[in-house]
Specification:
The chain is α+β, with helices and mostly antiparallel strands. It contains 8 helices and 14 strands. The strands form 4 sheets. Strands 5-7-6-10-9-8 form a 6-stranded antiparallel β-sheet. The longest helix is centred in the N-terminal third of the chain and has 87 residues. The radius of gyration is 34 Å and the shape is elongated.
Amino acid sequence: MKALKTLILRHFFVQALLPIFLIEISLILTLFLLNSYQSQQNKEALEGITDQAFVEIAHQTAMRLNQHFSQAENSLKQLTETSESFLLMRNQRTEQKQNFQTYHGFFQYAPPHTSQEGFHSFSEPKSTTVYTTNVQHLKHYDYSILNSLLPLEPIAKSIVETEGTLVTNVWINIDKQYAFSYPPINPYRELRPNLDVTKFPFYYSVDPKHNPSKKTHFIPLYKEDWAIKNGELGTYVKPIYLKQYFLGVAGFTLNVKEIASVINHLELPFEARAMLIDENNRLIASSSPAAIKKDLTSTPFTRCIPSRWTITVVV
């Protein structure tokens, strides 16, 4: 009986069932390895597809943002050409001396108002678009320049108030004496009567010596403490010429908040976030301000480099 049991175990279980058991084990291991390999392949393929998708997202985001910068540059070119045309015909402008009054050392555009009694009365303007510095008495030439700047207000207003624009301020400086600004400013509170803008980089950086090609320049401001406080990214500046004679500078101020608004309106999938950073990886704007710290420690899928800054997309 004992020998029979031994025979059954040896011949039936060992010789018959053991091979089947080993085959089953090998099949299970093979399936496991194949599944693991396929999972890894699927993971790599998914990562590749995701990476390609975010490469395209970053590229498209950079292109859309660059369109806003290009629009600002084109608008500045149009403003400069228009101002040059007005200044070229400055001698044909009516002097209208009564429209300029001196307040706190500045001659400002302040036309008289007709009172209910029918009299012309003057009131100190809270703000103005056209004003002078370093001028004690206005002469014919002064009036011709100032009256040539006045018609630019509707153009500047349309540029600043256009939906989606990055421009928050339009300004023109003709030498150190004449200026235009939109939105209007209060020179007494914001400036000095003897202010010499020709000593500032935004002015002399585009003069014939520093910019003989007459190109538009971008001057970054966001690295300055005062600019950060005001939310200013920088300025586009372009020279104004009159018959090959350097006359002054026109400029646009670009605001970081407006750029952040543009980024916030981007439709990014998978709860992704977009950041605008400079060449030193300094954060300028993020589509998710509450996640800035997380954004800076995340690994970006890709970076698409426009002309001056980098668009980084993270998820």
